[in-house]
Amino acid sequence: MKIISSKLLAEIINSRREEKNLSIKKLSDLASVNRSILSRIEINDYIPSIQEIKSLSSVLDFGVKDLYEEINTINPLINLKNQALNKKEEEGLDRLFSMMLTINIQLLIRKSFDNSIQEKRLF
Hints:
- The chain contains 6 helices and 2 strands.
- By secondary structure, the chain is mainly alpha-helical.
- The chain has 2 domains: 2-70, Orthogonal Bundle (434 Repressor (Amino-terminal Domain)); 76-122.
- It has a two-stranded antiparallel sheet.
- The longest helix has 36 residues, at 87-122.
- 10% of the residues are buried.
- The model has no long low-confidence stretch (mean pLDDT 83).
């Protein structure tokens, strides 16, 4: 799965800024992004808005595609089921998954019910 990486964004902004011999203040002026926000972006302590990314990408010549990072996610429940040692363990995991789905459905129903009660109170 691909995600936009704030870590990759921080690395790109820092390296491109240095390649172009721009100070943080100069980049801030060119991109119209607050200097302190820019510093926080470079240390991956701030997630910029789309407009900020657009401005920075224009000045530093990078695209959104450069920000994508491939991550490998493993669903721990599927992994757990694949590691079942015998039929009894597999049946136990199936029951566990079924209970978890039931609880999730009950929580969704309760949330829906709570929302409808609140809406009635407003009238």
